[in-house]
């Protein structure tokens, strides 16, 4: 598993990064900034961005992340740098976008796809152009896979674009061959595909659970890991990981303590039911270890931190786990306190090494071109 | 947590049971046996029992469990005794029914409820009347809660009825107050309520995952634990466990390695979001430890058995876990080989003690009346 920058010099003269934050949400100051990039036919529609209906008890973003001038949290590069990057020594910040993660909740596929393209052009011009620690994601509306494939090929060679992000919520599970043209483009461009939860159970997406729609945000948020399991088992079972061996997936914001259970369950069922998935050439958990990465936030917090370390070992965290804070959202995890004490090699891999390898990042962030 | 028989003598002169199997599926030889118990208006309809559409690679029941006379697996008491109970020394067999676990997939609530009642009368007359190791469950069609409450009060005082079983699949999550009259009756009668998967994503139930309908049985079966999570978080968050402190729930056939993750997630989210669930008076995981039990099958099988023991310790298996084989289904777990070596106290609790306490079973099964 390696990103497309690995063939570049990794800047051996520079020390390797020690902290790569894999989930930073940037936001526009004013939606009109993005509307400017929309095709004319959608300009009047503007940015249709329904927020989730499962209401938090307070804001979804941290009040202390609001810029001094009062813009939305995450909208000021200066505030972000001072408040988070400088505070913790973040070498790379992987931008994952914001409310556009509801793209699959939108009934109109064409509009959703053009909104993705407009957002990505805006992010490239306004954030990746800044350089510094920023690398970014192309948000995708996967219900329009051919258009997304075109976009990935058009925008995906920007030196600071390091992945595609699609919403965790969908109408069809992501293993479905309907989506494969998009996967083909991402593999071709050397870009991993991340999945991020946001609007499960909203708009035209499915109810979040087999039991239907939960009642509270507390329930909805507790179940984040199950949304990831529903998509991952599909990607494995339908043969996406086998068909696209150079394509990786990243699960963002699902926590991680469910992963050992998930890998064991797949392997056990595969032993008995492999006739249903004959294109799998090795146990499902090995596809996961080779081609799937999990970001840490929102990390579980057992009473005994040793339990979390046991989980990290069970899931081979030294290969599979990447730190993420989710800054500036309400439940930001601290790079200092979120994770338990780990063996040195595991800690280095989780805090920076796995992400550096996956995204193919040079040691020196400033060596990456900004356009 | 204690069953309603605990006030009886537990037969101190007898040795305590060493193996209680909490998921044994009995079946009718001929559906007409059950039709005889249906109200006249439904007799012509017969037993409408759609099987699941996610197809296994072979039969759902073990070929070696078929009785000598060729009836369905699970339909012969003699075969079951010889093949499973005598082989492993099963002291108690908790019968959980069979294809009726699709009751919530049926669009007609009234018919589903009467089918549940008819099945339960049949089971009492044909299986519980046999005595021996058999104790049983009242299957419920929870979409008709008042009728189920009536049934639970009518049939629930049979000395060998030890729980209510409802399908894991539903139209509304089980925390919903619509279901509460049934819970009130079960608590009143001292009967735990079990949930068992079968028709998630079929008939009028919801798609099994937030991603929609998976493609294969391999996927459907891998995700069993997520169906349980969707229901359990609802039971906790909507206050069912808090409102009915003497009511217990049992998760059957969901495996268990997801449970530590689930408890940690709820507790973490509860710390931040408890304003949404103000009726919870303690951390959610404590409600689970006090009022929820998990059966073992289909047990996860990590390469390193020590990992499974770590999971059992994380979830306080000495309080929360009960052995189940799922006999005579295709993936029956062996009482001898399914679980890793455990400390003696934990092993005793898992293999028998926790179930004996939950169901209030006397040491001597033959001391329980048969009607």
UniProtKB/TrEMBL annotation, chains A, B:
<dbReference type="GO" id="GO:0005737">
    <property type="term" value="C:cytoplasm"/>
</dbReference>
<dbReference type="InterPro" id="IPR032466">
    <property type="entry name" value="Metal_Hydrolase"/>
</dbReference>
<protein>
    <submittedName>
        <fullName>Predicted metal-dependent hydrolase, TIM-barrel fold</fullName>
    </submittedName>
</protein>
<dbReference type="InterPro" id="IPR006680">
    <property type="entry name" value="Amidohydro-rel"/>
</dbReference>
<dbReference type="GO" id="GO:0016831">
    <property type="term" value="F:carboxy-lyase activity"/>
</dbReference>
<dbReference type="InterPro" id="IPR032465">
    <property type="entry name" value="ACMSD"/>
</dbReference>
<dbReference type="GO" id="GO:0019748">
    <property type="term" value="P:secondary metabolic process"/>
</dbReference>
<dbReference type="Pfam" id="PF04909">
    <property type="entry name" value="Amidohydro_2"/>
</dbReference>
<feature type="domain" description="Amidohydrolase-related">
    <location>
        <begin position="20"/>
        <end position="361"/>
    </location>
</feature>
<keyword id="KW-0456">Lyase</keyword>
<keyword id="KW-0378">Hydrolase</keyword>
<dbReference type="GO" id="GO:0016787">
    <property type="term" value="F:hydrolase activity"/>
</dbReference>
């Amino acid at each position: 598993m390696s990103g497309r920058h690995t063939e570049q010099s990794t800047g051996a003269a520079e020390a390797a990064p020690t902290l790569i934050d894999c989930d930073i949400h940037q936001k526009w100051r004013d939606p009109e900034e993005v509307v400017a990039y929309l095709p004319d036919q959608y300009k009047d529609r503007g940015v249709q961005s329904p927020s989730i209906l499962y209401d938090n008890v307070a804001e979804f973003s941290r009040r202390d992340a609001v810029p001094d001038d009062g813009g939305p949290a995450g909208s000021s590069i200066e505030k972000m740098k001072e408040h988070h990057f400088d505070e913790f020594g973040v070498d790379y910040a992987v931008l994952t976008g914001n409310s556009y993660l509801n793209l699959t909740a939108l009934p109109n596929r064409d509009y959703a796809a053009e909104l993705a393209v407009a957002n990505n052009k805006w992010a490239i011009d306004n954030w990746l152009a800044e350089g510094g620690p920023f690398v970014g994601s192309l948000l995708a509306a996967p219900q329009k896979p051919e258009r997304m494939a075109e976009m990935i090929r058009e925008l995906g060679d920007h030196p600071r674009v390091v992945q595609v992000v699609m919403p965790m919520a969908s109408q069809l599970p992501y293993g479905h061959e309907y989506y494969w043209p998009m996967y083909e483009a991402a593999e071709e461009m050397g870009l991993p595909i991340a999945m991020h939860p946001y609007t499960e159970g909203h708009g035209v997406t499915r109810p979040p659970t087999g039991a239907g729609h939960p009642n509270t945000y507390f329930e909805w948020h507790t179940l984040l890991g199950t949304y990831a399991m529903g998509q991952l088992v599909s990607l494995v079972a339908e043969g996406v990981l086998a068909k696209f061996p150079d394509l990786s997936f990243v699960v963002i914001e699902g926590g991680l303590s469910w992963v050992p259970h998930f890998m064991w369950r797949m392997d056990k069922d595969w032993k008995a039911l492999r006739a249903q998935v004959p294109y799998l050439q090795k146990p499902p958990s090995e596809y996961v270890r080779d081609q799937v990465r999990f970001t840490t936030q929102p990390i579980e917090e057992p009473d005994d931190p040793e339990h979390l370390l046991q989980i990290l070992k069970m899931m081979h965290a030294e290969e599979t786990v990447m730190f993420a804070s989710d800054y500036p959202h309400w439940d930001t995890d601290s790079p200092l306190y979120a994770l338990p004490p780990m063996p040195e090699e595991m800690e280095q891999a989780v805090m920076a090494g796995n992400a550096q390898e996956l995204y193919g990042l040079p040691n020196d962030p400033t060596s990456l071109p900004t356009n």
